[in-house]
Specification:
- With 168 residues, the chain is α/β, with parallel strands linked by helices.
- Helices cover 17% and strands 31% of the residues.
- It contains one helix and eleven strands.
- The strands form two sheets. It has a six-stranded mixed sheet with strand order 1-2-10-6-7-8, with no helix packed on it. Strands 3, 4, 5, 9 and 11 form a five-stranded mixed sheet that branches.
- Strand 6 (106-110) and strand 7 (113-115) form a beta hairpin.
- 23% of the residues are buried.
């Protein structure tokens, strides 16, 4: 009977070791990851009153700005401006098509909608700076607005975890 008891003890020890390893791996997977970098506003400043047409200028730290559609790599992406948005776009999915702008163009926000200056597609409250530049000019209707910056990968998917600015 002794060999059978020894085998059972070894089996229980092995089961306990595997269970412990699975638990450790699960805890490691649940630990929040640090964001790849930081994004913030240079202008406007928090609480500032802006003109109906104003520049939004961003600062990115530890992430390389690239144009949309370029090869994906670690810590690269472009900026998306979120205007009057309550919730962030979901992780793992491309952000909705918004105004696609570069330094020479600007987006118009009229009645809570951003107009694509190149085409006629309308998408609420989102401006993609797909050229990889740091700034964009937007036109907003008079009144209070909130603005937030979001970094997305070259395919337009939010970086995981989010790299977002404070909302101003």
């Amino acid at each position: 009977m002794q060999p059978m008891e020894d085998a059972m003890k070894r089996g229980l020890v092995s089961l306990a070791a595997v269970t412990s390893l699975v638990a450790i791996m699960a805890l490691a997977a649940c630990e929040p990851k640090e964001p790849a970098g930081e994004i913030s506003f240079i202008t406007p400043k928090d609480g500032a009153t802006i003109r109906p047409t104003s520049a939004i200028v961003s600062r990115v730290k530890d992430i390389k700005r690239v144009s949309a559609g370029t090869a994906s790599d670690e810590n690269v992406g472009y900026v998306v401006v979120l205007i009057d948005m309550e919730a962030l776009p979901p992780l793992g999915q491309p952000v909705p098509k918004g105004a696609d702008v570069d330094r020479k163009a600007h987006a118009n926000l009229t009645n809570g909608t951003v107009a694509d200056p190149v085409g006629d597609e309308m998408v609420e409250n989102l401006v993609q700076i797909t050229s990889g530049e740091a700034d964009v000019r937007i036109t907003v209707t008079p009144g209070p607005h909130t603005i937030q910056l979001l970094m997305v990968d070259p395919q337009g998917v939010p970086l995981d975890p989010y790299v977002i600015s404070p909302k101003i």
